Records
---
Amino acid sequence: MRIIYFSRDYTTHDLRFLSALAQTQHEVFFLRLENKGRVLESQPLPGKVTQIHWKGGSSPARWQDGLGLLMDLKRVIRTYRPDIVHAGTIQTAAFLTALAGFRPLVSMSWGYDLLMDAHRNLYWEWATRYTLKRSEVMVGDCDTIRRLAVNYGMAAGHIISFPWGTNLDHFHPSREDSGLRQHLGWKEEETFVILSTRGWSPIYGIEELARGFALAAQQSSKLRLLMLGGGSQEDLVKHIFRQANVLDKVYFAGQISFQDLPEYHRAADLYVSASHSDGTSISLLEALACGVPALVSDIPGNQEWVTPDVGWQFPLGNSNVLSQRLLDVVRNNACLPEMGRAARLLAEQRGDWEKNFPFLLEAYLKAVGNGKNIVTF
């Protein structure tokens, strides 16, 4: 088949999907709606994927550019004559494809488009319903997204749900000491290390995480925080730590490459996420795959993964309870090795990218009318 993979931007998730598609027998083209200057470790497209050059893809997309983009998308479709357009997010790339009248359309939810954008206002809700009505198949990464899609009019029998999963060969427990804790002067028996890998923005609850850690670190001298990434709330986060006089207990690692990321997971005793919106969080799956128990906000996407055998939950937005949970785990940490083994097993059973990717190919077959019965993973 000739497939146009049409995405809002070019992210690590896009690269992973395109790399896997490049290993199939299909002819794959990449169409990019906008460029928001995301950091992608300077990774080029996979060799067997052809990028389509058009009016979009070089700058942030604006609604006032919509008509011009729509007309050029129609030209692209006439020129490349795809068998399928795989497009996401729902209200951007998939919506534009639906407006262009192309069928069969495989719409892919990126989580936040149905969790948040769909009910932003009446126009976004209409765009969501319009797109799903004109999609032969919708792909999502968890049961929460499936239920939302049904609520917005997508036929349940035309939804394929599967966790995007992670690379279990890359993210795995290791008995070898990476030396990271020693490098930081954090002695194994004297410290308890928490890992945060989420962006520093409101959607990921980074302020609540900072306040929760600051409160707990004032009461426990063992607590340390590995904080990866960065973002718009950097000044606020550092102010919280400085005001609580715990800045010396935090290591700001910055942007970490995919290659080096497992080293930080293996240096941690506990993974923490205070996110306000997630389907199946890849960051969470990476931690579980490395055998790291998790403490996460109690949003529906997290509830599908973090059960008492692999971690804990706390009420969304409640930094006081988060702080107490941290202190409880530090005081009662004998269960962590067993939980870490259960976390790895869960990742192997449900979060293996190699096992889950074929569900996307099933979605393509379903969309062109040759598929088997839909299976919800």
---
Amino acid sequence: MNLAHEHRLAPGAIRVRFALGVLLCSLALFTLSANAQTPNPQQPLSDSMAIAEAHPTAPPTALRDLVDQAEKNNPELAASFHAWKARTYAPKQASALPETELTVQQFAVGSPRPFAGFSNSDFAYIGFGASQELPYPGKRSLRSQVAEREADTLHEQTDSVRRQVIENLKQVYFHLAYIQQTLGILQRNDQLLNQVQEVAENRYRVGQGNQQDVLKAQLQHTKILQEIAHHHQEEGQLEAQLKQILNRPQESADVVTENLVATPLNHSAADLLQKTRENNPDVRAHTAMVRGQETQVELAHKEFRPDFSVGYMYEHTGSQARDYYMATFSVRLPNRGRKSAALAEALENQERSKQELQSEVLRTLSEVQQQYVLVKQSEERLKIYEQGLVPQSNATFQAGLAGYQSNRQDFESLISSFLDVLNLDLEYRSELAEHESAIAKLERLTGVTLP
């Protein structure tokens, strides 16, 4: 059985010529239900009723609670956070002085053995010294800034991972909500079809119906059972994905979703685009990369400056000679050919990062605009379903019931109007899930909590 967006019943797919007695029983059932103000079997089920039938004991779980759990427990997000946290220690390392070198020297005279001739030669000595490299002023601070920009990039990437995890969670949650709601609808309508099938079989046994009607009823009943089984399979798969995102054991209790309600989009396209430029973590990460490359170019220019080294040595000789004291100062001249190549590389990387930033901005803004159009069009379609198609299909079905009672409408048309009610209800729920999924994408891209 084909369903809208892989789960809607195709219009006209369940067209069964049921016996007249079946319809009369159904008419009586509808009349009693209307008088008692209970849900009509042919009317669209509310979300709470549909979910309650599929999960009669489990309470629904709020999406906000699941988002909080994902932010605390998701291992992918935790790994990204620790990667950024580790990188925050890099600037201090980059700005630190090179390691100080301590030296111990022993100079022997007349023998390779340690300390040989130390007491009988004026040239023998034991020396203790230290030396320290000193980068050219400004190099250490620039290296620290480069490391800070890399840490800023990882921080924005961590925010991007967090938003992506939340979006994935919401996408699975909304899909699961659609499956659970439509599962309840299918189960309820399968019960009604079972009753119709039994009456059709009874009428066929007494010669008041025909075998074709019975076979069609059995076929449609089997198709609904197949679709229910498919819903159960997909529900199980979605539950597994949800538990993976939440870092829950797979054998833990399943999640029951809340009712889906359309989230209004009160922001204009221009407002969302501006929020994207300011808040999108991928754009901010590329911006930090550009700043880092600019600092890297500045450092490459500074690398043409020489570095220095200072040292001091104390040498203790034998008792017949005085001690020695030696201070050193050295200059390390850079290889200009190698430094020129490093500068050219830094300039190319700077231009690359600028182009990547521009590409990311254009891609993100385009995606925001597409999602904005999708949400606005989805709002229009939801309004058409709520104010037009769903009530019109219900009115058509009720009129068909009255017409059939007065023998002014055939049974085939009545069944067609019944399927319209069912299919439009499924389509409406599918549209609602798609609307909420598009809202979740906009929240990730813009950093705006909607509404």
---
Amino acid sequence: MKINKWTVALAAAGLISLPVAGLAEEKPNQVLTALQGTSISGYVDTSAQWNPGTGNLNSPMYKFGGPSKADGFNLNVVQLRIEKPLDESEWAAGYRFDLWFGPDANTLGTTSLESESSSDLAIRQAYVALRAPIGNGLDFKVGVFDSVVGYESVEDPANPNHTRSYGHSIEPQTHTGVLTTYRFCNWFSASAGVANTVGPSINVKAHDSSLGNDKAESYKTYMGSVALTAPEDWGFLGGSTLYAGVVNGFNDGADENTTSWYTGLTMNTGVKGLKVGAAFDYLNIHNLSGDDNAWAAGAYVSYQATDKLSFHVRGEWLDDDANALYSDSAVNHAKVLAVTGTVQYDLWANVLSRLEVRWDHSASGEQLFGENGSGEPDLINAWMVAANIIYKF
């Protein structure tokens, strides 16, 4: 049976199907073969937010928040993922492409030099995945990938809370380079990589004179991480994970060299459905004339009450001596205590629904939030109530 090449192209795009008998008579098509194992997934992330009080110009400076989301309904982001993960073969190959649409795409900040504007569109990740048969298998990511440090994910539905932590907000987010990962055994794995910069802009180089970057052409960003996972025969602690990582290089967002240190722990408990976690992030911004560091510590408690109902609490402390987040504030060296409580109930299939209350407090006693008639902060406390609805496909 002879099949027109345009028919094959439509079938490869998933728009039509071909008769089984027809396919059996043809030689394997390269396009169809390449698409085998490819999946399409993603999510639509929406929210409604209320910030008690008037004036939101000076909002808490956690990532993917801000005045634009206060007191109204929001489309946060739409993520589209096309992926072919690595299979179990020795010389496995695959890829992953995460595309973001919506306001959070601008915050992600991966826009390359060639783009004139962010326009609510961003590439979150786009890499080729490879495996070489060295030992237990050495895996590679080549392209644009998420950072190796962090307790929370860039993906909202992957996190216990809707709003991001201060630790997440001072971490590097995205790199353009090469990352290798090797699992030595069931309980120990490590990653190491090299990238152009700490990020997030795609393809930016530390030696790009057009941007004022004056590093040598050989200057690159280096990163590494290790993960320890408790064996299953450790009783209720089985599956608990201790993680540590570091990223050092030129940060095009801070226009300076930075070093980010991270350690995190996720631990099962003896109580069914109860997990606890902790995270510590330390950011050093090099060559500042004054204090050059910011750090954040967070504690997490999650309880899965039923198959559909769960509760999540996060407490955190930010010490922003380097003004990494609150650089536009009238308060220098901000210190913030924050507590976030989230109730999640999955009523509809494929839908994540959450109600969240967040409290941010200026621990130094100085007014850090809100807005008076002149645009200056006039509050030491900021409250937020949000409903978050996400459809995952």
